[in-house]
Amino acid sequence: MTNRNDSLTELGTIKIHRDSIASIAAIASTEIEGVKCIGKNFRSGLWELVGKKDYSAIRVEFDKNGEVCLEIPLVVKYNFSIPDVATKVQENVRNSLEKMTNIIIKDIGINVQAIEKG
Amino acid sequence: MRTLGILFYTAVLVFIGLLMITFSIVLSIPGFGLQSAKFFNDLLYVIQSSLNYRLVIGLSGVLLIIISFSFMQLILVRFQREKTIAFHSPSGDVTIALSAIEDLLRHFVVIIPEIKELKPDVIVNRKGNIIVNLRVVLKSEANIPELTAQLQEITKNKIQEVLGVEEQIVIRIHIAKIISREEKERRRKEIEKDEPKIPFGGYGRV
User: Fold this and answer.
1) Most buried one in A51, A67, B101, B123, CB count within 10 A?
2) Which of B82, B110, B127 is the last residue of a domain?
3) Complex ipTM tops 0.85
4) Does A96 touch chain B (CB under 8 A)?
5) Residue of chain A with shortest Cα separation from B96
């Protein structure tokens, strides 16, 4: 398992770190109406206390074929249909990542952690 | 990877346990001569006099704390995964934490004015049915049969609407308390009594 996705061009290698992929996924997710914010884990909670953004709660894994699996924790706004929001997030994240990084997305898992008022 | 991690932490904890058991056995055998306070005095002196020993002990402490935190995280993630509802979509799986559904149900306090307090507990049984236990505190003016029927209907519709699930939903309501008007008045008066009086509070500026 690597920390980044490498692609070779005529001029050299382009390496995209998993944190960049997580950031793109986070931005694409929060663009969708009905998403309150990205869920947290222990590390991102600590960084937030210091006032820094950390998307380590988004799990990014590369398989042997260079395909990417993502798991995004979400906090959804009250009064929104979770399946609709989850599907829109999956589509937007897939489109954004394919547009920006050219990587192949295998799977985008959504984990709804909480529901809050918007 | 997760199984490997759990195995590693279990091995570390077993090792610490074995070390403590050995230590206690050695202490209880008189032949080793470790019962005396002098032995512990000497041990503490050696540790205190050498910087390396102190460093090793300090670092071991830090390592143990890190191991415990990672272990806690692993267990919590596993525990959380078990408490979810999952459905599949073409792009990947969607899991919803049961605590998220509880968050959703807590908002009913605002929707139904007769409800004073609501504590939801959502579980999923082995057949995949969603069981919602609602512990409710009501205001005295509420008509209980009507209100509970309304609450069950709203809960069921809301869960089906928000989660998009078609599974059977069982809603159990437990009315824990009914707050009477007199009790509300008494509480209000108690709060007012506790508030400090402002001198000349009744006078206004002209």
Assistant:
1) B101
2) B82
3) no
4) no
5) A112
Could you tell me if A113 and B100 are in contact, meaning their C-beta atoms sit under 8 angstroms apart? yes
B2-38, pLDDT tens digit by residue? 667 677 777 888 888 998 898 888 777 776 665 667 7
How many CB atoms neighbour CB B202 within 10 A? 7
Nearest to A39 by CA among A3, A87, A77, A75: A75
The residue count of chain A comes to 118
pLDDT higher than 80, residue B170: yes
- Count of residues in chain B: 206
DSSP string of A34-80, one letter each residue: TEEEE---HHHHHHHHHT----TTSEEEE-TTS-EEEEEEEEEETTS
| Partners of residue B101 in chain A, C-beta under 8 Å | 115
Beta-bridged to residue B31, according to DSSP, are: none
Asked if residue B139 has pLDDT above 90, the reply is no
**Residue A1 contacts residue A68 (beta carbons within 8 Å):** no
Residue B172 belongs to what domain range?
A: 95-191
A113 touches chain B (CB under 8 A): yes
Closest-CA residue of A relative to B81 is A111
- Give phi and psi for B196, each to the nearest 5: -65, 140
Q: Which domain holds residue A71?
A: 18-116
Same domain, B51 and B102: no
The structure tokens 């199984």 sit at: B3
CATH number of the domain within which A72 lies: 3.30.70.1350
- Give residues 24 to 83 of A whose Cβ lies within 8 Å of B: 41-42, 69-70, 76, 78-83
Angle among Cα B15, B20, B24 to the nearest 5 degrees reads 150
Asked if B84 has any chain A CB less than 8 Å from its own CB, the reply is yes
* B75 vs A contacts (CB less than 8 Å): none
- Using CA atoms, how far residue A47 sits from A51, A73, B47, in Å, is 6, 17, 36
Position B10 scores a pLDDT of 79
Using DSSP, state whether B29 is helix, strand or coil. Answer: coil
**Number of separate domains in chain B:** 2
